[in-house]
Amino acid sequence: MPDFETWNEQRGGEIIAAHVQEEGAALPMLHALQEAFGYIPRAAVPMVASALNVSRAEVHGIVSFYHDFREAPPGAHVLKLCRAEACQSMGGDAIAAAAIRQLQIGWAETTPDGQITLEPVFCLGLCACAPAAMLDGKVVGRLDSTRLSTLLENVRQA
Amino acid sequence: MKPRIYLSRDAGALALGADEVEGAILASARQRGLDIEIVHTGSRGLFWLEPMIEVATSGGRIAYGPVRAGDVESLFDAGLLDGGPHASRLGKPEDIPFLKRQTRLTFARCGIIDRLSLDDYRAHGGFRGLERAIAIGPAATVEMVVESGLRGRGGAGFPTGIKWRTVAQTAAPRKYIVCNADEGDSGTYADRMIMEGDPFVLIEGMTIAGIAVGADKGFVYIRSEYPHAIDVLSRAITVARRANCLGKGILGSRYDFDLEIRVGAGAYVCGEETALLDSLEGKRGVVRAKPPLPAHKGLFGLPTVVNNVISLATVPVILAEGAAAYRDLGLGRSRGTMPIQLAGNVRHPGLFEAAFGLTLGEIVDDIGAGTASGRPVRAVQVGGPLGAYFPRALFDTPFDYEAFAARNGLIGHGGVVVFDDTVDMARQARFAMEFCAIESCGKCTPCRIGSTRGVEVIDRIIRGEKRAENHTLLTDLCETMRLGSLCALGGFVPYPVTSSLTYFPEDFGLTAPLASAAD
After folding, report:
1. Residue ranges of chain B assigned to CATH 3.40.30.10
2. Distance (Å, whole) CA B304 – CA B310
């Protein structure tokens, strides 16, 4: 799992400046910010707005429109479970229920110890090896609840 | 020559442990003092056999699968490098019936070549299409694509050549080629497989499009859920630039073309072409009203070709083999081949490229070999989350744009998701509306409000509140959304809902006669 940097204005400014010349720079800029800090810090929003010459409201509109952009830091590990039809046909809903039960959190929430964030995803393109998940960027196919428990225990101990 | 082992690095293979298998092969070879060469390929698309490995022998390639890390020692003991016998030995991959029955044009190289080797790409017919396009020039290139009958493989099925002709004929200081790689439909993975397994074919297809319409810049908009595809295509672009297959004066010609990857951010609606353009421009992915068409005013207000990955990746073979060779395959107005993607609860999930015209029954029962669970097939959703659920009674429907449309369905991007008899179709219908509510861009009222009301009405039907009245209301709501929505998200979400109601009324606590009376 990447160790995210803590927000600092100078670093944020450098990231924004690195993308400002691109055509349609908002998404590459926001992706780069989230890659560095794990989320889009509130303090970055006016900086992005000023760099792109748009209002803060517009930047907030973009951040809140796209499911990927987080407005708070994630846990140390991120588990994305596919919630779409192909995974449903192979018991994905039961695995999702098991994850919620085991972690005792809801979607887009982080366990109180800050270890695991659970996020829904609508299709990882692994529909031929459903149910599918992504844990810290690593893809997992033909998931079952036993395997899920093992994976979660492993990352917690790592 | 060193013994050579081909390993699929497709995300599907990785999800099933290909990394661990590779680690075990390297460790075992080292221990045995064997100097082997490992070649990274994409997937052949036989996912029930992944991770699949192939070895080069004097008698051709021999495949083994599914291979687990724990099998590797016994494979070497069995003489893996000479294609020795083993429980997981599959023989020559091209003789496996699932592959043998296919007509692979777009996917001809996928799973076979080293995905990042230009030499391998050329040795397997790569760049013949681009060379032809350079030789015959823009106008003749456009006409070849028109004559091939190729239609947009993203789902809408609009003739690709006509789109190109429109952009070519629109005068502008700058034009763009945009590749829609926002493959968000559940049950589809063909775009991902091509980008991970044969990225140069997409680069070649986009370059041909650029030459044909007079554009020198292209964008590939890839969804963020596909990190492996982003990685492979980025590396392929770098390789292509170094070899002058992208950039100024491509392959020594007078044409310039370059590409940039842009990553989406988890919005399904950005697969709709105008929402995708807004997203590329750095805005919320909100659908635009048409006209103006993107071909006239697209990215940054300039004429833009927006094509799906598979459409663009099919162009090189059309240019190389000729329009007639492609057009001669298929059925009715659906010409050429379609990469069908079998997914979900199916025994043989995988990519099956074939000429249009197979029946749904052949695809599910014969090619897919029924369900993975071994239970009876109850419903099949074709064309992603906005596609209709078909019961076995409609299994005689030929896989063809018009035949599916005639039965209130769609083939979309070619995904086929199989469900067994444990499925609750009321729940699937509810999910369709819920998904639409989550993913609606919010611009038009039928989609934004209708999807939320749809979930509520389905909940009332499930709970048994005034079932007949609410059924009528839901049917009416679906009509409003179908006719009144700005794009296919709100406009097509009635397909899974009404098909569930029509063919599986008992799951809603409705009786069959009531459902048919409402048709």
Report:
1. 4-100
2. 17
Q: What are phi and psi of A6, to 5 degrees?
A: -80, 150
Which part of chain B is CATH 1.20.1440.230? 425-517
Pick the CATH number of B330-420 from 3.10.20.600, 3.30.230.10, 3.40.50.920, 3.40.50.300: 3.10.20.600
pLDDT digits (tens, 9 = 90+) for B400-417: 999 999 999 999 999 999
CA atoms within 13 A on the CB side of A157: 6
For every residue of B92-149, DSSP letters joined together read -GGGSHHHHT---STTSSTTTS-TT-HHHHHHTTTTHHHHHHHHHHHHHHHHHHHHHT
Å from B32 to nearest chain A CA? 30
Q: How far is A20 from chain B (nearest CA, A)?
A: 11
Chain A residues whose beta carbon lies within 8 Å of the beta carbon of residue B12 = 125-126, 128-129, 141
The Cα–Cα gap between B5 and B198 comes to 18
Please tell me which residue of chain B has the smallest CA distance to A123. B186
Question: What is A77-157's CATH topology?
Answer: Glutaredoxin (3.40.30)
Mark the ranges of chain B whose per-residue pLDDT is less than 50. Answer: 514-519
* CA–CA distance, B145 with B165 (Å, rounded to integer): 9
* Check whether domain B4-100 has CATH 3.40.30.10, yes or no: yes
ipTM for the predicted complex:
0.97
pLDDT tens readout for residues A5-25: 999 999 999 999 999 999 999
> β-strand A77-82 against A116-121: which pairing, if any?
parallel
Query: How far is the C-alpha of B63 from the C-alpha of B51, rounded, in Å?
Result: 10
* B interface test, pick of A21, A48, A129, A148 with most B CB neighbours within 10 Å: A129
Task: Please determine, looking at this structure, whether the domain spanning B118-327 carries the CATH number 3.40.50.11540.
Answer: yes
The 10s digit of each residue's pLDDT in B289-314 is 999 999 999 999 999 999 999 999 99
Among B238, B220, B235, B224, residue whose Cα is nearest residue B280: B220
3-state secondary structure of B226: coil
- Angle in degrees, CA A122, A123, A125, rounded to 5: 170
Say which of B16, B226, B283 has its CB closest to residue A62.
B283
With an 8 Å Cβ cutoff, are B15 and A129 in contact? Answer: yes
Q: What is the longest distance spanned by two Cα atoms in chain A? A: 51
pLDDT at residue B511, rounded to an integer: 80
pTM of the model: 0.97
Q: Locate tokens 């590797």: which residue?
A: B72
Residue extents of the structural domains in chain A = 9-65, 77-157
Class of domain B425-517: mainly alpha
Vertex B233, ends A128 and B284: CA angle to 5°?
85
Q: Which of B110, B225, B287, B390 to mutate to test the interface with A (most CBs of A within 10 A)?
A: B225
Task: Answer whether B184 sits within 8 Å of A122, measured CB to CB.
Answer: yes
Is A84 in CB contact (< 8 Å) with chain B? yes
Nearest to A127 among B187, B228, B423 (CB): B187
Residue type, B231: D
